[in-house]
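FIELD: query
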Amino acid sequence: MGAYLLRRLLLMIPTLLGIMLISFIVVQFAPGGPVEQVIAQVTGQAGGTDARLTGGGSDFAGAESGNSQYRGAQGLDPQFIAQLEQQFGFDKPAHERFGLMLWNYIRFDFGESYFRDISVIDLIIEKMPVSISLGLWITLLSYGISIPLGIRKAVRDGTPFDVWTSGVVIVAYAIPSFLFAILLMVLFAGGSFFDWFPLRGLVSDNWDQLSWPMRIVDYFWHLALPLTALVLSAFATTTLLTKNSFLDEIRKQYVTTARAKGLSERQVLYGHVFRNAMLIIIAGFPGAFISAFFTGALLIESIFSLDGLGLLGFRSVIDRDYPVVFATLYIFSLLGMIVTLLSDLTYTLIDPRIDFERRDV
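FIELD: result
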């Protein structure tokens, strides 16, 4: 196991390097970089990026109009353009910028946001409560629904219960979560019918003034609609996976032997089948949580005004806030690979018969 773990850890290095390199190269060819964002704001062509300029207000008003590689820079002082390039680090060659970025990221130094007066790591920490809330509760709710339902469907395979629940699961999976979120908003969040739930934020403005029981109520009051919209399709895959896993185990010879010994169906199911059938489901829990935590819910966050990591990443791409874009990509990729490794190790903890030492990575 030690050799396998070491190989997996060493493979993370070229994988992470490749992800960052490809993303960096793609960004070099993407139009509308941070320098152009500031130029557009200065010339009145932007839509509201809050750029922090190092130059004074009169620095860009020069009469020189020399050639520039930036669209919309005609008529601006070349010294101002050079100042912007230096501020954003574009005065260095691309390979030097990439190497410097990797060196900083190895030390977990992610710098500051281009357009927000805050460090990148503080910005990510600031947005984490929303994403943690959505990811954690979606995972718990989906597993809490999927596992009992999947077991019940396996036990009653082919019955009317199995048929109609399969139909419900498939229909729920097919409904886009953002459309269902809009429906919930119209029905229950002050749309055309009821005004029962809040439409923005994770907690109320007076949350600090509430007692602890009321804080808990307020927290789940704000999460009720977003979680309902997300969980609608979140449990479908795990439900069918649980059912098929239990069916495979129920049809094996050791189950027939256990029944022949006079054990009840409940003893057979939970004393023999459960551990083997739940192996693949439990081992996938870390990956499921990280998937829900990071992928979550850009559209749901937008609809319900939840300022989480999904919305942060989207706005950073739109604003060309490269420190935030690359830092989130680096952190999420690293965590994703670590969680994938933990999922594999979970298999060995649940079932010691699995030995990755004998397999090629």
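FIELD: remark
The two ends are 12 Å apart (CA to CA).
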